[in-house]
Each structure stands twice: as C-alpha cells, then as structure tokens.
Amino acid sequence: MKKILFCLALGALVALVSCGSSTKQATEETEENAAPAYSTMDKEQVDLSKFKVDDEGYIVLFDGSSLEGWRGYGKDEVPTRWSIDDGCLKFSGTGTGEGQQGDGGDIIFAHKFKNFELSFDWKVSKGGNSGVFYLIQEVTTEKDGETILEPSYISAPEYQILDNANHPDAKLGKDGNRQSASLYDMIPAVPQNQNAYEQWNEGKILVYKGTVVHSQNGENVLEYHLWTQQWTDMLQASKFSQEKWPLAFELLNNCGGENHEGYIGFQDHGDDVWYRNIRIKVLE
Q1: Would you say 234 and 240 are in contact if contact means Cβ atoms under 8 Å apart?
Q2: What is the pTM of this model?
Q3: pLDDT of 168-192, one tens digit each?
C-alpha cells in the first residue's frame, strides 16, 4: 500500500512539474508574440474649409500648384524629394528602395478621414513601386531609451502602386496580391487592368463604415470589410501576422484606432512616381 501511495505521489509531482513547465513555455510564447508598447503622435490637423470643393463635391487635396496641407509622415515639413512637377505631385527616387529618412520618406495629407472616397491618378517609372495608404496612424515605440518612428504601413492598409511587368514584387505574394490596386499582400486586384509604366492610371479607394473598395481604371477590382473576422484572418495569413509582426497585427487589426479614422498618404519606395487629381469626398 505504501508503495502504491508513493507511486501516486511521485506521479502527481511529475505532472505538477510538467504542467508548470508547459505554463512557463506558453507564457514565454505569449510574451514573445506580444506587441511592444506604442504611442501615436498627435499633430494639429489642417482646416478642410480652406480647400476647394469641385463640382462633384470632392475636396481638392492637391491642385497641381501647391503642397499646402501636406507634410512628411512623422515630420512637420514635406521631404524635399517630393515636389511639384508639371502640375503633378512627384517623388524623385533614389533607386535604393524605401527611403523613410533624410530628404525622402512617405508623405501624408494632414487631416484624418473616416468615411470617404479618395480619387487620384498615378504613374510610375519602369520597374517603379509605391503605394497609397489610408487610415494611417503616426506610431512611435521606445527602445533602449530612444523613440523610434515606425513605418506608415505598420498601421495602414495599402493600395499597391507598381509596374507589374518589370518589378519583381508583382510575382511575389500569392495570386498576384502584390500587383497594382491590390490590397497589398492580402487581396489581388481582379481584373488586373493596369496601364503600362509611364502611362496614367486612375485609382479610387472607398472606405465606408468598414467596407473598402479598390478601383482601377474605372473598374472595381476588390472589396473587403475592416474590423471583421475576415479582416483578422487575412492579416493572420499575410506578412503582418501576429507571429511575424505582432505590432503591425495589433495596429492593422484595429486600423484607424479608436475612432476608425486616419491620414491618407503616398509611399516613398525609392522609385520615381507621379500623382495628380488627388481629391476626396467625405461621406457621412
């Protein structure tokens, strides 16, 4: 009897140690996949009443002659590589990939939008890459006592801008979900009706109470729904998954923050890109 009791006690002790080890491992895995603490910058927004409203009810964000209302992401001024070129908003590329520093970096219009229809024209140089972001938050984290400005795409869905024929990213991702007008790395644009590099394309993004539609050259090419299980599942299947990039997963899963609103912006990916006819209609 004593032998049996001893064996039972020993078994319970082994189980307890094993359970403690499993709990510790699960805790360590949770901590490893946890998003770091972050902050969002709170900068003054521009007054939309100062901007022209066209005959279709769109607010003209760029009129081809002024960069009023625009600034760099996380900056107070427009980076010098962004300029006005023959009535277009142009980024002059470095040829070295994403800038995000020095005289480059992404550009945003300094007013947060919630429900809207954004319309724009775009073209890229041969092999060019850029992107249009929406619901951007300006996010910073702390590391070793230093404040780090996280990239704009960590919090914002991206309408991909790309020369499909000549940039390798067009063949990466899955089923063409990194080609132009796609929801980058998540949903491909179908049909893929892009005009070739150095030719103008028409882009449109509709965001209304969580429903998002991308359009390219007059055709709706994708639709999805923010803040739903569908959205969470798409994030988890992308490069922004909780395991691969926990901060991006957390921010994008609740993109737009508490008020579901954010900036729109254009990406410096190191290549020449042009935008024009940038206008937005605020939806109630």
Answers
A1: no
A2: 0.88
A3: 999 999 999 999 999 999 999 999 9
